Amino acid sequence: VDWAALKADLKELVSTCGCAPILVRLSWHDSGTYQASDGSGGSRGAQRFPDGESQHAANAGLDVARGILQPYKERHPQVGYADLWALAAVTAIEWAGGPVIPYRAGRTDIRTAASCVAEGRLPDGDRGAKHIRTIFYRMGFTDPEIVALSGAHTLGKCRADRSGFEGPWTETPLRFDTRYFELLLECEWEPSEASTGLPQMACPSEPELMMLNTDVALITDPTFRQTTELYAKDAARFHADFSTAFVKLQEHGHPSLVDVGV
Ligand code: HEM
């Protein structure tokens, strides 16, 4: 793989496509199936088959991201899907003003859909703190790491025809900043509904914005709240902690990755 050329191609892509958020979501859903107890799941390009993980409800809409990246797989055929999707995500975060996240390559893609994990490993947005902990502890994350990773919702939005939830988290969905944490603390979040009938949270003073129940758990749970307050005030700390946690997310299950100079 000509990693420098691939990285340059992806930089060009993210600066023109407006697709940075969904590229981050693709990498997170590829790697967020990991289970530390048996090493199953993790970033393995598992959504590229027509059946298996691509059909899981949590992955609705990610065909868009996979389609955007397919031409880059064709232009750089030696790159694995999991490595490609992971590199696209860190490139997107950097373009959006987030941290420059260290990247290493060498993830092994699964070969057939039969190696996909069963549905149910990714979080549901209408749940609470207990559910979030169950999902993220399974991967080996701590409470502060859960808050840091959730800060990715500074990017992007929910769509009624994908997840069934609706709206952006912040006024600047293409900026990786601390607005998500500030808004969590500034607003009086109250129960609301998407047009699909799914429950979500609304802020009377910011009617265009939304939070998921799982986002609001980061202020109602006292332990999560401490970290939310820290990140709302300290962008450098958020960026540093997000970077560390995102590397862990992208790399878990792959003990022998290598630096490829990008
Ligand atoms: C409790 C944990 C989480 C839940 C319940 C959750 C749920 C969701 C939902 C429902 C959407 C909307 C999808 C759509 O309608 O297109 C979404 C989008 C997104 N999520 Fe999460 N998420 C969680 C954690 C994370 C983490 C850990 C990351 C990355 C580190 C992340 C990154 C994103 C991004 C960037 C988007 C925007 C995608 C776009 O605009 O197309 N999320 N998430």
Automatic annotation (TrEMBL):
Question: Which SUPFAM superfamilies did the record assign?
Answer: Heme-dependent peroxidases (SSF48113)
Q: Name one GO molecular function term.
A: peroxidase activity
Similarity section: Belongs to the peroxidase family.
UniProt-annotated stretches for the region Disordered: 35-54
- Domain Plant heme peroxidase family profile, which positions? 62-262
For the biological process aspect of GO, one term held by this record is:
hydrogen peroxide catabolic process
* Pfam families tied to this protein: peroxidase
Source organism (scientific name): Emiliania huxleyi (strain CCMP1516)
Could you list this entry's UniProt keywords, alphabetically sorted: Heme, Iron, Metal-binding, Oxidoreductase, Peroxidase
From the Swiss-Prot or TrEMBL record, give the protein name: Plant heme peroxidase family profile domain-containing protein
